[in-house]
Amino acid sequence: MLIGTAYAQAAGGAAQESSLLVSLAPMILIFVVFWFLLIRPQQKKMKEHRAMLDALQTGEEVATAGGIIGRIGKIEESMITLQIAEGIDVLIQRGTISQLLPKGTIKTF
């Protein structure tokens, strides 16, 4: 009396597979949209930034992520000496450089 009657299901394995695919389709679609709208552009931006950092040369004018603007004095593997004023050099990490400025942006110190 307490246990209900158990009914056997008809053979319908193919119907269960298609319903599984239909239930996973929205998740796959969301991942594809995230890939094209968020992940891929961020990877492209990171690649461009890395290429800009690798191409830096002495004498170029740059801006750091902290807002410091200066001229590159010496380049080492992971550090850069940045001249921010006459006789004032600051040692910064290479990755903190956010953008390369056009020549002549900084007035002569």
How would you portray this structure in words?
This protein is an alpha+beta fold. The protein folds into two domains: 12-55; 57-100, SH3 type barrels (Roll). The protein is built from one helix and five strands. It has one helix spanning 13-54; strands at 61-64, 69-75, 79-85, 88-93, 97-100. It has a five-stranded antiparallel β-sheet, with helices on one face. A hairpin with a 4-residue loop joins strand 1 and strand 2 (69-75). The longest helix is centred in the N-terminal third of the chain and has 42 residues, at 13-54. The chain is rod-shaped. It starts with 12 loop residues before the first helix and ends in a 9-residue tail after the last strand.
Question: What's this model, at a glance?
Answer:
Helix content is 39%, strand content 26%. It is an alpha+beta fold. The model has no long low-confidence stretch (mean pLDDT 87).
Strand content: 25-35%
- Give a quick account of the main beta sheet: strands, pairing sense, barrel closure: 5 strands, antiparallel
Approximately how much helix is present in the residues?
A: 25-40%
Number of continuous helical runs: 1
Topology, number of strands: 5
Mean pLDDT: 87
Shape assignment: rod-shaped
Distance between the amino and carboxyl termini? 95 Å
> Any low-confidence stretches, pLDDT <50, length ≥5?
none
Any idea what the radius of gyration is? 29 Å
Name the structural class: alpha+beta
Number of domains: 2
Order of helices and strands: HEEEEE
Largest sheet, order of strands side by side? 4-3-2-1-5
